[in-house]
TrEMBL record:
The keyword Lyase applies. Keywords: Lyase, Porphyrin biosynthesis. It catalyses: hydroxymethylbilane = uroporphyrinogen III + H2O. This is Uroporphyrinogen-III synthase. It comes from Floridaenema evergladense BLCC-F167.
Length: 266
């Protein structure tokens, strides 16, 4: 296989671990490059245990300067709840919206809204460093995952004098089982690359396989990560990471995988 091959991932079997219902776009990107894709959702997205805090925040939206959305799940659950409470989008007229990542901005576009700010590196950490306004005394609403999210963003915003109200908008958990055909493929070493698009998918993948598969089996499989935070979790739990996207998006991850395969066979 050489760099001129128009379909570079032909003959490569890739396991996608994104949440059920959220993997189709990524699967298509990989299939367009010729990959055979298997899916193993390592994440389940559900409503939060209570809507109380989010409902209260929605009722008081006029008191916030900024709304921060760091994932497509946050966008989907926030706006769906807004509609459930009988509110229309005019309620957001005086609230500025910051999002992390192109995907999140894309989800926002479905509601005919465009963000007032997207940090340059598509990661939450660059949000504070590049925030377009003085953060002192800004009232910020941050709808987020109920448990297990990273705390860095809130700590950094608070340190700069912002008042951050965190509300659970959705919950993510570990699925109860692995599809038998995926487990079999892992055991038979017929999967070439496993992809991870978040730290949580690494954690839950590890939880799902640790009693069913010897971990040294993963040493023979290429591990591909969407960015530094996910790579760190791969190193901690799986002992390695082979590919890391330079642009922390699904397109970026696809590109990194193509490059890696081409270099290997080049």
């Amino acid at each position: 296989m050489s760099n001129s091959n128009p379909i570079p991932l032909t003959g490569t079997t890739i396991l996608v671990t994104r949440a059920a219902g959220q993997s189709s776009e990524f699967c298509q990107l990989l299939q367009q490059q010729g990959a055979v894709v298997m899916e193993m959702p390592a994440l389940e997205i559900t409503p939060p245990s209570s809507w109380f805090a989010l409902d209260e925040a929605i009722a008081n939206l006029h008191t916030f300067n900024w709304l921060i959305l760091t994932s497509t799940n946050a966008v989907d659950y926030f706006f769906s709840r807004l509609q459930d409470r009988g509110k229309n989008l005019q309620i957001l007229e005086k609230v500025k919206i910051a999002v992390v990542g192109k995907k999140t901005a894309g989800s926002l576009a479905q509601y005919n809204l465009s963000p007032d700010f997207i940090p340059p590196d598509f990661v939450a950490d660059s949000l504070v460093a590049n925030f377009p306004e003085e953060l002192l005394n800004q009232n910020i609403l941050f709808p987020r995952v109920e448990t297990g999210g990273r705390e860095v963003l809130v700590q950094e915003l608070t340190a700069k004098g912002a008042k951050v109200v965190e509300v659970p908008a959705y919950q993510s958990g570990c699925p109860s089982s692995i599809a038998p055909e995926v487990l079999q493929a892992l055991r038979e070493k017929s999967i070439d690359i496993i992809t991870f698009a978040s730290s949580k998918t690494v954690q839950y993948f590890y939880q799902l396989i640790k009693d069913k598969l010897p971990l040294d089996r993963l040493q023979e499989i290429t591990i591909a990560s969407i960015g530094p935070q996910t790579s760190k979790t791969c190193q901690e739990l799986l002992g390695k990471v082979d590919i890391e996207a330079t642009e922390y998006t699904l397109e970026g991850l696809t590109e990194a995988i193509v490059k890696w395969v081409q270099n290997k066979h080049g």
